[in-house]
Amino acid sequence: MIIIMLGAPGTGKGTVAGILSEKMNIPQVSTGDIFRKHIKENTKLGILAEKYISKGELVPDEITVDLVKSRLEEPDAQKGVILDGFPRTIKQAEELEKILKEKQTKLDMVINLTTPEDEIIERVENRRVCQNCKAVYNVKLSPPQQEGICDKCGHELVKRKDDNAKTVKSRLETYFEQTSQLIDYYNKKGKLRTEEVSERINRFGKNVAEDIIKEISE
Ligand code: ADP
Ligand code: ZN
Question: Is 123 a catalytic residue?
Fold first, then answer.
């Protein structure tokens, strides 16, 4: 099962991907998390990626595609994956298609999450992530039981460096310029499923993931 999570920053891709991954027992492959791990470990790739990430720009396609390609070769990825934050450009989508063809597998579903822009900015500002297990919290909407501590593993929660108002604006611009074209791309292939994630219409995280699992198992 290959599922792609598409959507602007802060729409809840990672949260939904995490729930799907747990329920379907296949790994969540988050390119953002992989880059952040490299940044933390100060690897060559991390140093390079940080230059783009800190400006809210995309890491170049060749680097990102290679990274995903080798991740998909690992044993735990053979039953399928939830791709969280990849592809983000048409080029990446085309390369993914080639990779899947070589592996004689195909894409099952693209889940496109949409959220009103003002809500996105607020959500990103209020987002905290676990340094250890990568669980995502929102200090207003879904706070941890104990402030600053992960409910799941007890480690410290942090705010991502790029989760500030300025970088979010440029991440949103990048999304509209480069990533949003993928909505049309996958719609034409008949793979797209759009879910509105908004406080105002009250659909978030768990419900979205549960609806999707129901649909898949039907
Ligand atoms: P968000 O969706 O909240 O912006 P991510 O963790 O998915 O967060 O991505 C963080 C940053 O990592 C992006 O702003 C971008 O710089 C980089 N990145 C993640 N995935 C990709 C990708 N597929 N291609 C290029 N850059 C990426
Ligand atoms: Zn944790």
Answer: no
Which among 37, 160, 193, 203 is annotated as catalytic?
A: 160
Ligand nearest to the CA of 158: 2
Q: Copy the structure tokens of residue 7.
A: 């959507």
Q: Looking at residue 109, which CATH number applies to its domain? A: 3.40.50.300
Cβ of residue 15 lying under 6 Å from some atom of ligand 1: no
**Domains in the chain: how many in total?**
1
How are strands ordered across the β-sheet holding 109-114?
28-30, 81-84, 2-7, 109-114, 192-196
Question: Pairing state of beta strands 157-158 and 109-114?
Answer: unpaired
Per residue of the chain (218 residues), what is the pLDDT tens digit? 999 999 999 998 998 999 999 999 999 999 999 999 999 999 999 999 999 999 999 999 999 999 999 999 999 999 999 999 999 999 999 999 999 999 999 999 999 999 999 899 999 999 999 999 999 999 998 899 999 999 999 999 999 999 998 999 999 999 999 999 999 999 999 999 999 888 766 555 567 888 888 887 77
Is residue 193 annotated as part of the catalytic site, yes or no? no
| Range(s) of the domain holding residue 144 | 2-217
Please indicate whether residue 115, judged by its CB atom, sits closer than 6 Å to ligand 1. Answer: no
